[in-house]
Amino acid sequence: MTIPIRRVCPACGNQPVAETTYGPRGTVESWVDLQVSTDAYQAPYQVGFVTLSEGPRLFTRLESVRSRDQAVRLAGEPDRDTYWFVADPTTTPIGGQG
Ligand SMILES: [Zn+2]
Question: 47 burial class (0-12, 13-18, 19+ CB within 10 angstroms)?
Fold first, then answer.
């Protein structure tokens, strides 16, 4: 899996590459709070690993995560080459609509 979408396989160079839709739901595996700003991001912010409900795992920016196994959902559009996830404020089961 690659984000953003690539038209050529990054491992072997083959084409075409199948396009599949994942998300928007997943669970947080681990995360860290970052306290130092970069040119791109103003601290404090969070990054961590999220396992999507379909299985793939992403390292991504997060927002308002407070515990492991917290339900999150993909929200909004890509920001630069990063996708945003936000903590899901509902109790909707993983894999539910949303
Ligand atoms: Zn390949």
Answer: middle
What residue numbers bound the domain in which 57 lies?
25-87
58-90 residue pLDDT tens: 888 888 888 888 888 876 556 666 667 776 655
Distance 8 CA to ligand 1 centre (A): 8
The Cα 47–Cα 37 span in angstroms is: 13
Distance (Å) from CA 17 to ligand 1 centroid: 8
Quote the pLDDT of residue 25: 86
Give which of 75, 20, 5, 85 is closest to 50, Cα–Cα.
85
CB 70 within 8 A of CB 91: no
Q: Separation of 13 CA from ligand 1 center, angstroms?
A: 6
Q: What is the CATH number of the domain that holds 37?
A: 2.40.50
The residue among 75, 79, 78 whose CA lies nearest residue 98 is 75
